[in-house]
Write a structure and sequence with these properties.
With about 220 residues, the chain is α/β, with parallel strands linked by helices. The protein has a single domain, classed as 3-Layer(aba) Sandwich (Uracil-DNA Glycosylase, subunit E). Helices cover about 40% and strands about 10% of the residues. Strand 5 and strand 6 (about 180-185) form a beta hairpin.
Length: about 220
């Protein structure tokens, strides 16, 4: 059930209950009191046409109290089948990248996508689909309350920040987003297509970026003690 503070955000209880079914009903900040409540709405969601073609809604994977939140683009086939984000080849590589700096999805990381249903043929989500789903993601950020946010790939980064530059131009750079330290990194799928570890290549750059993230996280954890 929603609490009194949430009820005040809407004209009535019925409007709150209609959120998953009508993209015209906004989702104000602090609509949800916890992630379980948000996930319940997500699993009922029909705010865009992706609800007609998905197998299931893919909400999240990892620690709901994590210090690092990773935001991807959208579920692929494996994710659509299993109901978890980043579990295919890209996800396996992502887990390896995190493990290389002693970060665990179970302990340190919370993973979600800007769009929670698989687009047909794994196409890029449309602006309409992103806008329908984005409020859920912003609520996840607030509820998880991570120290660091990583955008994997251009779709997540541009869809959330409005940045126009190519991912190759802005990856690895720290910025402030939603009051938190954030960084854009290459999507693991891009690294699978560019396997060279040569200096200056995407995999080499990712190694520099993830070490940067690890160092920043250690410093922030020390300051938060």
């Amino acid at each position: 059930m929603n609490n009194p503070q949430q009820t005040n955000l809407f004209e009535n209880q019925s409007q709150w209950e209609k959120i998953p079914y009508d993209a015209n009903i906004p989702i104000p900040r602090q609509t949800y009191s916890d992630l379980e409540q948000l996930e319940s709405h997500c699993r009922q969601c029909q705010r865009c046409e992706l609800s007609q073609t998905r197998s299931q809604v893919v909400v999240s994977r990892g620690n709901k109290n994590a210090d690092v939140m990773i935001i991807g683009e959208a579920p692929g086939q494996s994710e659509d089948e299993q109901g978890l984000p980043f579990v295919g080849r890209s996800g396996q590589l992502l887990d390896q990248i995190l493990a290389s700096v002693a970060l665990s999805v179970e302990k340190d990381v919370y993973i979600s996508n800007i769009v929670k249903c698989r687009p047909p043929q794994n196409r890029t989500p449309t602006a309409k689909e992103i806008n329908a789903c984005k409020p859920y993601l912003l609520e996840q950020v607030a509820l998880v309350d991570p120290l660091i946010i990583l955008f994997t790939g251009a779709t997540a980064f541009k869809g959330l920040t409005g940045e126009k530059k190519a991912i190759s131009k802005i990856r690895g750079q720290w910025l402030q987003w939603e009051g938190r330290w954030a960084m854009a990194i290459f999507h693991p799928a891009y690294l699978l297509r560019n396997p060279s570890r040569e200096k200056g290549k995407p995999k080499w750059l990712m190694w520099q970026d993830i070490q940067n993230v690890s160092q920043q996280l250690k410093a922030m954890r020390t300051n938060h003690k």
